[in-house]
Amino acid sequence: MSVSAHMPDAGGEGCHPLFHEAPSSVEFNKLRKRLLRHMRQAIEDFAMARAGERWLVALSGGKDSYGLLALLLDLKWRGLLPVELLACNLDQGQPNFPKHVLPDYLASIGVAHRIEYQDTYSVVTDKIGENSTYCSLCSRLRRGHLYRIAREEGCQALVLGHHREDILETFLMNFFHGGRLAAMPPKLVNDEGDLFVLRPLSYCAEADLARFADAMAFPIIPCDLCGSQDGLQRNAMKAMLDDIERRMPGRKDTMIRALTHVRPSHLLDRSLFDFAGLDIVRQPADPEPGLALTQAG
Fold first, then answer.
1. Strand ranges, E, within 160-207
2. CA 166 from chain center: how many Å?
3. How many CB atoms lie within 10 A of CB 159?
4. FRET pair for 100, CA 20 to 30 Å: which of 118, 163, 260, 271?
């Protein structure tokens, strides 16, 4: 696909029904087109879309997953995404979770969806201490159920709403706490080898997604399980990135570009580069005869 193809403005009849009530301002149209451009670039750069496939789009009810679904629907509406989309929410049994919000919203915009109930909340809170962070176990349990649902629904890919900041925060967490250089890949194959995991928002800025969610008036559902916990390592990385961006605007984009331009020979990983096999190919030229005699004398 070509990322330079024309995209009409939001609103009106020339768009997915989800955008019928969207703002018609120049500012919103610029924001939406920027997000679409970044999403399409990621889909193209990492060869995500294969015609005829079915994607399971994970929808948590947060701003990022709403934005993910809306932008994918927009691309598909315009004939720029040749896959079938199935939205899926995993109700994890969190207290006071508004069960009606997502199915009502998805039905109102005519989106195929599946709502799955699995009480992972009780499992997580039973196994993890009150002062510990739930994110890791919660994520593993959720991912396992989403893989199962993707298989049951005949999907070839699970699509997640991780954005630019999520990738950078993960990179810094691995760098500072894990002792390795690793981030969230935009595309990978799961351990079983039967499903792709895709992150089409990899180039999209979190601030843009937040503004997009506000403008679209998505019915946001907060996560009371992990959102209520303080002191998470990820929060510290987020604060560090935000501070760097305030001091040196544009650094987040530079950091994302850096992750796409890796030079193994300039790092220290001996499994990626054969340092032991390095050798001098060209010998230095012999000195001039007169100079050699002078030096010898």
1. 187-189, 196-198
2. 7
3. 28
4. 163
**pLDDT tens digits, residue range 21-58?**
899 999 999 999 999 999 999 999 999 999 999 999 99
Instruction: Return the amino acid letter for 34.
Output: R
Per-residue HEC secondary structure of 10-52 comes to CCCCCCCHHHCCCCCCHHHHHHHHHHHHHHHHHHHHCCCCCCC
What's the distance, CA 258 to chain centroid?
Answer: 16
d(CA 32, CA 17): 15
Query: What is the spatial distance between Cα 133 and Cα 228, in angstroms, rounded to a whole number?
Result: 10
Spatial distance between the Cα atoms of 122 and 218, rounded to a whole number of angstroms: 28
pLDDT tens for each residue of 125-161:
655 555 555 566 567 777 888 999 999 999 999 999 9
Measure CA of the first residue to CA of the last residue in the chain; give whole Å: 71
Give the pTM.
0.84
Tokens at 191, concatenated: 């351990």
Residues 142 and 155 sit within 8 Å (Cβ to Cβ): no
Reduced to 3 states (helix: H, G, I; strand: E, B; else coil), residue 113 is strand
CB contact at 8 A, 208 and 68: no
CA angle, 264 then 256 then 140, to 5°: 90
- Does residue 198 contact residue 159 with C-beta atoms inside 8 Å? yes
For residue 257, how many other CB atoms are within 10 A of its CB? 10
Per-position DSSP letters for 67-88, written without gaps between them: HHHHHHHHHHHTT---SEEEEE
Q: Pairing mode, if any, of strands 54-58 and 187-189?
A: unpaired
Burial class, 161, CB count within 10 angstroms (exposed 0-12 / middle 13-18 / buried 19+): buried
Q: Which two tokens stand for residue 112?
A: 């195929």
How many Cβ atoms are within 10 Å of 82's Cβ, its own excluded?
A: 13
CB of 33 within 8 A of CB of 8?
A: no
